[in-house]
Write a structure and sequence with these properties.
By secondary structure, the protein is α/β, with parallel strands linked by helices. Helices cover 34% and strands 17% of the residues.
Length: 377
């Protein structure tokens, strides 16, 4: 904070409950006013984190998200409304934060964080809130933070639970110390695939804001070297101690990772060349009467919500024992909800000698690009 900086009369009133706390006081509030936080992901985790950072008086809050507001978001991303649908999440969230606290500066970045822009963006902020929802983004945020020496306040939510930690070497581990290698894509479920109870990311996003504020104040004991696991089903918390891996390729004694990489390739989430078919392309193939077998690898409960006409249901885990039911003479177009499970299925089927294609974006993309009457979930 610049020398001689002070709080206005309005700020003295707004932050009065902070000012009477010995751990904060005027000095701490001025420190928050002069600090900055970057929220990567303006969804279920990022919205509560951002609103509490703004309410606390963090001077500058960056908001990174390339997506637009959609109806399924509203179940947990409480700052958005139906009137915002189709608009940039980052820009809508900026407007909401300004309504919450006009004294803070919210900076929207309506883009996807990637290896080309991450270092420049993260380098401008004091602390990073990792509110992303996929493995490539988590590794990217972690690696950029370690290379820049920034604390990474990480959380993830799925189903009725989630976890939160602060990755900040050398005082503690980084994300790669816990997960040196990503699991195969078919073993990773997103909230789109597996669902999430709406309040769970709210709990964890609020905890992320709490961790970030503590880091910015330099007060309290943050979750560095500690992984807090939340179970919303039975309302319990468990804590796991995590040590820094001295052999970590990123933050260990002899690091071999010194720059950002292609994280989709690293995590195996980039589709194989020539294996994807877009929804409009599939529609064209169907209209031409091509010999296709539509294979749905979701769960029965998802199939009952919506499915493509004539599709054969075969949940992913049952695929190896049901290969004999598939016609090798036909082109198999595999789909799931958003294209993750079907991508794994296509890789497996091709190894088994089938001609298989993955519906890019799954049935959700079909509903957006081809048939708007298809229910989305």
């Amino acid at each position: 904070m610049p020398e001689g900086a002070s709080l206005t009369e309005s700020e003295l009133s707004r932050y009065s409950r902070h000012l009477v706390l010995p751990e904060v006081g005027t000095e701490g509030q001025l420190r928050l006013k002069g600090s900055s936080a970057l929220v990567v992901g303006c969804g279920g985790l990022g919205t509560p984190a951002a609103v509490y950072l703004a309410s606390a008086g963090v001077g500058m809050i960056g908001l990174v998200d390339g997506d637009v507001v959609e109806l399924p978001n509203l179940q947990r991303q409480f700052l958005y409304s139906e009137a915002d649908m189709g608009r940039s999440k980052a820009h809508v969230l900026k407007e909401r934060l300004h309504q919450v606290n006009p004294n803070v500066r919210a900076v929207p970045y309506a883009l996807k964080l990637d290896s080309g822009n991450a270092l420049d963006l993260i380098g401008e902020y004091d602390v990073v809130i990792d509110a992303t929802d996929n493995l490539p983004a988590r590794y990217l945020v972690n690696d950029a933070c370690v290379l820049l020496g920034k604390p990474d306040v990480h959380a993830s939510a799925l189903g009725f639970g989630g976890q939160i930690s602060v990755f900040h070497p050398p005082g503690g581990p980084c994300y790669r110390c816990l997960y040196p290698e990503p699991p195969s894509p078919e073993h990773v479920a997103s909230c789109e695939e597996a669902g999430v109870m709406g309040v769970v990311p709210g709990v964890l996003g609020t905890l992320q804001a709490n961790q970030a504020i503590g880091l910015l104040l330099g007060k309290g004991s943050q979750l560095i070297g500690r992984l807090l696991v939340f179970n919303g089903f039975d309302s319990s918390f468990d804590e796991v101690r995590v040590k820094r891996d001295v052999g970590c390729r990123l933050c260990g004694a002899n690091p071999t990772i010194t720059s950002l990489i292609d994280y989709d390739e690293f995590c195996g989430t980039r589709g194989q060349r020539g294996t994807d078919v877009s929804p409009p392309e599939l529609k064209s193939m169907m209209s031409k009467g091509e010999e296709l077998l539509l294979l749905d690898v979701r769960e029965p409960r998802e199939y009952s919500l919506c499915h493509l006409d004539g599709a054969k249901l075969m949940p992913l885990e049952t695929l190896p024992r049901k290969l004999a039911e598939l016609d090798r003479a036909k082109t198999i177009v595999v789909y799931c909800h958003v294209g993750v499970r079907s991508g794994a299925a296509v890789s497996y089927l091709r190894k088994e000698g089938f001609h298989a294609l993955n519906l890019e974006g799954g049935i959700d993309a079909w509903a957006v690009q081809v048939d708007q009457t298809t229910p989305r979930y």
